[in-house]
Design brief:
11 helices; alpha/beta; globular; four-stranded parallel β-sheet; 4 strands
């Protein structure tokens, strides 16, 4: 694990050098993946890394976890509360749709949730421009393969340092890096709406996706779900710079 972490840190430094920028920025959600990335980018750039808390109707628990991550990593932090921005913007969108008699109720939750992710992305890029930083993504191998991320939201980033690591490998890396236990063990959630969890939404577990990616046998039902998600989301995987570990 020490070797893997050092390889990623060196890769992050090389990406910054090649881009001619000064450092790195990541959104900290209080979840496992962003916690690991926060620790990694702070190791790479102790004085030029930024972790941003971007609450939108975010629970106190997730905010507390995000603050614990910031403390454990030592990264400089900033909070930009986007709750009112989201409320105003989505209300305007829905109003226009209703005026045109075009609002589709069953798509409301997802549209509002994806807007959250895209507002966060826009904020990170505004901050990145201010600091002359790159925006760092937090997708792991399971999320990348299944397309479980919002296009131009949390998928809208400059580089992807942990995209070749399974969820379990990211969890092991988190323990090595000193991520708080409650973050390591919590149920993965994209914080898209209250009570939302990744695995409930996907219909399969990260352990099962990890097993599939490693070539292990999994139930046919889960295999069908994973392969259908991969096929449906092919348009999302568009060649962002990714860390590739040594074989």
């Amino acid at each position: 694990m020490e070797k893997q972490v050092e390889q990623i840190v060196q890769w992050l430094r090389e990406q910054v050098k090649q881009a001619g920028v000064k450092g790195l920025v990541v959104g900290i959600s209080g979840g496992l993946d962003s916690a690991v990335v926060s620790h990694l980018i702070h190791r790479a750039f102790p004085d030029n890394s930024l972790g941003v808390l971007l609450p939108i109707y975010t629970s106190d628990e997730n905010l507390d976890d995000a603050k614990q991550v910031a403390q454990s990593s030592g990264i400089q932090t900033m909070t930009v509360d986007l709750t009112d921005t989201h409320k105003t913007m989505y209300a305007e969108i829905k109003s226009s749709l209703n005026e045109s008699d075009a609002f589709i109720e069953e798509n409301d939750k997802l549209a509002g949730a994806n807007l959250r992710a895209r507002l966060r992305m826009s904020t990170l890029y505004a901050l990145a421009t201010n600091y002359n930083y790159l925006v760092v993504g937090t997708d792991n191998a399971a999320e990348w393969y299944t397309g479980y991320f919002t296009k131009y939201g949390d998928g809208g980033v400059d580089i992807l340092p942990i995209v070749e690591f399974t969820k379990q490998e990211v969890r092991e890396m988190a323990k090595y890096l000193g991520v708080p236990d409650q973050v390591v063990e919590k149920k993965p959630s994209a914080d898209l709406w209250e009570g939302q969890t990744d695995e409930d939404e996907m219909g399969t577990s990260y352990d099962t996706i990890d097993a599939y990616l490693k070539g292990e046998q999994i139930p046919d039902r889960d295999k069908e779900i994973i392969e259908a998600m991969h096929k449906k989301t092919a348009h999302k995987r568009d060649g962002l710079p990714q860390f590739h570990r040594e074989k």
